[in-house]
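re: the backbone from monday

yeah here it is again, tokenized this time
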């Protein structure tokens, strides 16, 4: 894992696990690249390209798509929640094991989700949304009806579950807009698909700790020796150069000779947001650094 702000000598060990997988998905009525991508944590354009389709292609019920939603698990916690902002994935750990992982919706670039540690202070089912003053001001500026609170029900943006994080007004909650998952469109809160919010709500406990990080570039060395690279857009504009980070991690962990640097450059350029195998062939012919 590489956390924004860490100095070179503070770079930790490589990640060692992937979450997600490769599988087939059968189209249902009403599906789109956007809805499927939001549900499984894949950019719609990447999903279309994986299946050699155009992003505007019409999907038909019964049609089968290939989905690759492998993501690098940035680091492992003893217990609790880890959220990597550029990755838009929430990881839940128990007894040092990854129990669940979910795609999430996060704060827009002009209203970013804050980084740092937190504790779960409150669990609310069928919550009332007490609209923050800042959002009330935004409602007024946009000519909308200003609401101070929204009761539980189908119009409540929090959905059916709210997990309050620390003393901040931010939390993890469900949504009535599932298409916004795996995007950056919130006022800083963390949105989950309604089914995932239900599941996580019943897994977490008050007092449980968590961590929110900013790591757009991740490298994993798996137990079988393969090297995976995952690169995301620097959405909050921390001015982070992917190849500089990749070289720093490779040098620090002495794996430069295990990487196919041409593949690494392609992954860095495309910023697909998925874990890609960049292991060099054993003969080393594809391992040159450009």
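seq for it, each position gets an aa:
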């Amino acid at each position: 894992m590489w956390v924004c702000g860490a100095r070179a000598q503070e770079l930790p060990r490589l990640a060692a696990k992937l979450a997600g997988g490769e599988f087939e998905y059968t189209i249902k009525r009403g599906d789109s690249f956007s809805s499927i991508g939001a549900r499984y944590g894949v950019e719609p354009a990447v999903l279309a390209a994986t299946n050699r389709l155009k992003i505007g292609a019409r999907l038909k019920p019964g049609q089968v798509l290939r989905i690759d939603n492998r993501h690098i698990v940035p680091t492992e916690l003893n217990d609790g929640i880890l959220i990597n902002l550029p990755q838009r994935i929430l990881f839940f750990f128990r007894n040092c094991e990854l129990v669940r992982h979910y795609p999430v919706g996060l704060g827009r670039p002009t209203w970013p989700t804050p980084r740092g540690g937190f504790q779960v202070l409150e669990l609310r089912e069928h919550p009332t949304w007490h609209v923050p003053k800042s959002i009330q001001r935004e409602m007024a500026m946009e000519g909308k009806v200003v609401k101070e609170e929204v009761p539980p029900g189908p119009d409540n943006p929090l959905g059916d579950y709210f997990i309050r994080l620390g003393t901040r007004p931010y939390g993890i909650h469900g949504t009535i807009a599932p298409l916004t998952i795996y995007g950056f469109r919130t006022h800083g809160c963390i949105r989950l698909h309604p089914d995932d919010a239900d599941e996580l709500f019943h897994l977490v406990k008050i007092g449980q700790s968590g961590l929110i990080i900013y790591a757009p570039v991740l490298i994993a060395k798996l137990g079988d020796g393969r090297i995976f690279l995952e690169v995301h857009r620097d959405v909050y504009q921390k001015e982070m150069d992917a190849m500089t980070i990749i070289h720093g991690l490779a040098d620090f962990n002495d794996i430069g000779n295990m990487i196919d640097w041409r593949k690494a450059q392609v992954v860095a350029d495309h910023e697909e947001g998925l874990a890609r195998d960049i292991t060099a062939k054993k003969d080393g012919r594809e391992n040159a650094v450009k």
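Helices lie at 33-40, 44-50, 133-141, 194-201, 242-253, 261-270. The first strand starts at residue 17 and ends at 19.
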